[in-house]
Amino acid sequence: MSTPSIKLNDGNKMPQVGFGLWKVDNATCADQVYEAIKVGYRLFDGACDYGNEVESGQGIARAIKEGIVKREDLFITSKLWNSFHDAEQVEPITRKQLADWGIDYFDLYLIHFPVAIKYVAPEVRYPPGWYVDDAGTKIEYSKASLESTWKAIEQLKKKGLAKSVGISNYTGALLLDLFTYAEITPAVLQIEHHPYFTQENLVKLAKERGIAITAYSSFGPSSFIECDMKVAADTQQLLSHSLITGIAEKHGKTAAQVLLRWSTQRGLAVIPKSNHPKRLAQNLDVVNFDLGDDEIQKISDLNINLKFNVPTNYGIPCYIFA
Ligand code: NAD
After folding, report:
1. Cβ distance 140 to 132 under 8 Å?
2. Ligand 1 centre and the CA of 221: distance in Å?
3. pTM of the shown model
């Protein structure tokens, strides 16, 4: 099954549906990536912080070796972790991440979070996570500004280490600030986006500036229940919400497909992950049916501005979304 592509503002094309690699177990990751390629996935959304870039690369190498795909058929995204924001760390860590994947360029490289924390050398701890110490008791900030980090990210594109560059978890204010100094406009903004957190105005701002949006955590609370997050457990699950299941039944689709189609029909890209072969295929099939305008509106009306992916919800005292 093939999926349509979104044309990015730098001329590159990004598949509208991809496979997210957060919380994919190291033990099964290579096989999952390989199986996902066989099912038809071409976009893989990774990050230093997911700790599975080596295994993801192994899955890709196997698929390429067996002639299922060529490197240029794939769209590989990775992200700069918070501890590598100091300008002089950006290229070395990108090169390490490329080596881990076993590739020589990323299709897309994003600033993961708009916060610079103190550098931890890869030999000391990798991925470093949020804390400066092994015991996980102390967050220390770096003095790198987001402007200085973005300038270093622009160099990655100029040097061909990333074909497209972008940001993640930026708010409107940070984007507007970025426009004052950016030589290269980000191609993609990756954000949490689901019916409880529709971010209409941020979507509008990105669209006005020609920035494509990738939605993450499209099923809302489900992803965060796995992380033992109380607010996620206390919230009505979207996958079993009567509005969503009712619409799904009407279209002969699953609730997951309706949630993904709600995003893709609004022009966003999605990157769900699943460990189940049936769901893997199902999540890819989210562009070949249409929801009615009234259905899209009713789903959007579920918005309660509820963001789950906030460090403090995991007990991490970093107040970036304060
Ligand atoms: P997700 O939307 O992929 O949801 C995952 C949960 O939904 C899992 O519990 C999974 O088993 C379940 N699921 C998947 N398909 C299903 C189906 N068809 N039916 C029923 N249940 C199904 O959530 P996510 O992992 O939070 O987000 C997806 C990807 O987005 C991540 O893997 C990662 O690549 C990216 N992401 C980025 C950031 C960021 O800060 N930039 C943050 C979170 C996630």
Report:
1. yes
2. 10
3. 0.98
Distance 184 CA to ligand 1 centre (A): 29
Which residues make beta-bridge pairs with 270?
Answer: 17, 215
Tell whether ligand 1 has an atom less than 6 A from the beta carbon of residue 32. Answer: no
241 labeled part of a ligand binding site = no
Secondary structure (H, E, C), 245-268: HHHHHHHCCCHHHHHHHHHHHCCC
112-136 residue pLDDT tens = 999 999 999 999 999 999 999 999 9
Catalytic residue list contains 50: yes
Query: Alpha-carbon distance 26 to 151, whole Å?
Result: 33
Selected catalytic residue, list 41, 50, 131, 170: 50
What local confidence, expressed as pLDDT, does residue 157 receive? 98
- Give the number of the atom of ligand 1 that is nearest the alpha carbon of residue 46: 34
